Amino acid sequence: MKEIKTGILLFVALSLLTGILYPAAVTVLAQAIFPKQSSGSLIYKVDGTPAGSALIGQPFSEPKYFWPRPSATAVFPYNPLASGGSNIGPTNNDLITKISDRVKSFQDTGIQGQVPADLVTASGSGLDPHISLEAALVQIPRIAKARRVPEEKVRSLVQAHFEDRQLGFLGAPRVNVLKLNLALEKL
User: Fold this and answer.
1) Among 20, 5, 91, 64, which Cα is nearest to 183's?
2) CA gap 39, 30 in Å, rounded
3) Which of 74, 76, 99 is nearest to 85 (CA)?
4) Which residues contact residue 5 at a Cβ distance below 8 angstroms, ignoring those fewer than 6 apart?
5) What distance in Å separates the CA atoms of residue 71 and residue 127, rounded to the nearest whole number?
6) Is pTM, for the whole model, over 0.85?
7) pLDDT tens digits along 81-140
């Protein structure tokens, strides 16, 4: 009987420690040190309403917006609850067909030359909010035409939203699609 009582007390103590105290301490510390990140890295519209997160991609398909990487998530695009790659390999016929269709749809919009890979392939998480600088630059003519603004104006907007490698060597140079599209709305 003594072992059962000890086991129950240990269970209650560890449950309080690991289920309440530790998560509460981590949350308070995160809010104090990284308030923006711990609140979801939200990006706000001009009117103050949340537009989305800087960390999760969003679907944009209108010609007047920059288009993101395709999403590989299930149920609906950029579903954070279904984060993960498609797990299909480069020789899979479904993937080859999807990529061919995506390339054709980009070429139908007037993109000249080669379509950057990140515009036709999903990222590992399926949620990537960024595209490469090249992927942004090839979309400029379509967006400038749809918005009836000079291409140079859109190009300068892309350059203003260019993010270099983290710490100078981590990751690839990129552009956050949501931030860029919100800046387009201000034009």
Assistant:
1) 64
2) 9
3) 74
4) none
5) 6
6) no
7) 888 777 788 899 988 999 999 999 888 888 877 899 999 988 878 888 999 999 999 999
Pairing mode of beta strands 42-44, 50-53 = antiparallel
Quote the tokens at residue 6: 């000890």
Q: Where are the chain's structural domains?
A: 1-39, 41-185
Question: What is d(CA 86, CA 178) in angstroms, rounded to the nearest whole number?
Answer: 23
Distance, CA of 21 to CA of 39 (rounded, Å): 20
Residue 174, strand partner residues: 163
- For residues 114 and 30, what is the distance between their CA atoms, to the nearest angstrom? 43
Q: How many residues does the chain have?
A: 187
Give the integer Cα–Cα distance in Å for 160 and 65.
16
Query: Are the CB atoms for 68 and 111 separated by under 8 Å?
Result: no
- What residue spans of 68-132 are helical by DSSP H? 93-108
Say if CB 131 and CB 100 are below 8 A apart. no
Task: Tell me if 161 sits within 8 A of 180, measured CB to CB.
Answer: yes
Residues 6+ apart with CB under 8 A from 156: none
